[in-house]
């Protein structure tokens, strides 16, 4: 049944390319692709394909089992190892996945990619496999999430190449494909709502000059300057209400002076926490020891040869509430239940960032070893 199906696919491919110029039989060759887009044999194939000579190039067309288009790509050589020309890859149901252009296996020119729902994901320009100029990024809902500027084409003097394993007998047609991005210029990032999240500039991948950061509600979160990626000079930090929380002076990324402000914006001194993780409250000095002393081995597993670590993830809100507690890994569900019960009973002090309570997600491993 599988081969009858692919016989139909080859017939459809033949029909699809019949619009090309008259060709000799040797100018069209059946090909087979696996799910890594490596050329393979008929027995191991996942996708049917056809290679057709077009003047001094070869066009490869491949389809999904339902006969919808999977790939259209031009190659310079008959062995189909040098991508040269338009390259278009599709998601199922004729939805574009990638649209690029290659010259001698090097990405050059306009590039676009799409999500499986058909929404555009990225759009930009390549020079010698380097991202160049302005690039735009969207989320799956179609909201613009970033506008980033990469180095101009005039500054790209080399070709970025990826190493390909020479021992691979049938490398993927994507083998050797690489992408290098050197941020140089303005940068804008957005919240899913469209509200600006941060803005500034880069110089050779390092933040440079004045940067501004915002909360999702539109209030300023912080602002200050970078020099070669390090905080330098005066920085101001604000609460979500818009009230200043600290004024800090930096010298080579280190705080040299500090002014603290209370929730009403009044100066409160020169000492306040800048970075502090959430802390469990209780009459103990060592939290790790407190955990080991108060989480007991499940009685049902007293004689079972089961050991390991229960790994959990949780968030402490800025109000000090534990939320989103979940188990990431556990040797046994009873051990996980014991850990969950213990953590749910704890009281917390929230994390602090620049004299402001913040929500923070944590991971913790509880050992169960005899």
From TrEMBL:
<dbReference type="InterPro" id="IPR011652">
    <property type="entry name" value="MORN_2"/>
</dbReference>
<dbReference type="Pfam" id="PF07661">
    <property type="entry name" value="MORN_2"/>
</dbReference>
<dbReference type="GO" id="GO:0055085">
    <property type="term" value="P:transmembrane transport"/>
</dbReference>
<dbReference type="Pfam" id="PF03544">
    <property type="entry name" value="TonB_C"/>
</dbReference>
<feature type="domain" description="TonB C-terminal">
    <location>
        <begin position="295"/>
        <end position="364"/>
    </location>
</feature>
<keyword id="KW-0732">Signal</keyword>
<dbReference type="InterPro" id="IPR037682">
    <property type="entry name" value="TonB_C"/>
</dbReference>
<feature type="signal peptide">
    <location>
        <begin position="1"/>
        <end position="23"/>
    </location>
</feature>
<protein>
    <recommendedName>
        <fullName>TonB C-terminal domain-containing protein</fullName>
    </recommendedName>
</protein>
């Amino acid at each position: 049944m599988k081969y009858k199906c692919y016989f139909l696919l080859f017939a459809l491919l033949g029909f699809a390319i019949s619009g090309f110029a008259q060709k000799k039989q040797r100018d069209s060759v059946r090909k087979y692709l696996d799910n890594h887009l490596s050329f393979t044999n008929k027995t191991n194939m996942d996708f049917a394909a056809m290679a057709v000579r077009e003047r001094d190039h070869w066009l490869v067309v491949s389809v999904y089992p339902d006969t919808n288009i999977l790939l259209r790509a031009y190659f310079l050589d008959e062995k189909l190892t040098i991508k040269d020309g338009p390259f278009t890859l599709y998601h199922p149901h004729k939805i574009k996945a990638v649209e690029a252009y290659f010259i001698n296996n090097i990405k050059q020119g306009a590039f676009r990619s799409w999500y499986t729902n058909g929404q555009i994901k990225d759009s930009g320009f390549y020079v010698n496999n380097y991202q160049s100029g302005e690039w735009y990024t969207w989320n799956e809902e179609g909201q613009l999430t970033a506008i980033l500027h990469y180095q101009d084409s005039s500054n790209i003097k080399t070709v970025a190449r990826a190493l390909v394993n020479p021992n691979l007998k049938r490398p993927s047609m994507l083998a050797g494909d690489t992408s290098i991005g050197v941020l140089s210029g303005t940068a804008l990032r957005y919240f899913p709502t469209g509200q600006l999240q941060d803005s500034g500039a880069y110089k050779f991948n390092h933040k440079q000059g004045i940067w501004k950061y915002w909360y999702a509600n539109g209030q300023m979160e912080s602002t200050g300057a970078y020099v070669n990626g390090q905080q330098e000079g005066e920085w101001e930090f604000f609460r979500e209400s818009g009230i200043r929380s600290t004024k800090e002076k930096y010298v080579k990324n280190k705080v040299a002076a500090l002014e603290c402000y209370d929730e009403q914006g009044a100066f409160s001194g020169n000492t306040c926490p800048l970075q502090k993780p959430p802390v469990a409250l209780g009459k103990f000095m060592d939290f790790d020891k407190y955990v080991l002393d108060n989480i007991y081995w499940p009685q049902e597993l007293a004689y079972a040869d089961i050991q390991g670590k229960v790994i959990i993830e949780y968030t402490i809100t800025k109000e000090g509430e534990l939320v989103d507690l979940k188990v990431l890994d556990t040797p046994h569900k009873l051990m996980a239940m014991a850990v969950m019960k213990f953590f749910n009973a704890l009281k917390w002090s929230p994390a602090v960032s620049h004299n402001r309570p913040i929500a923070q997600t944590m991971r913790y491993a509880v050992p169960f070893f005899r």
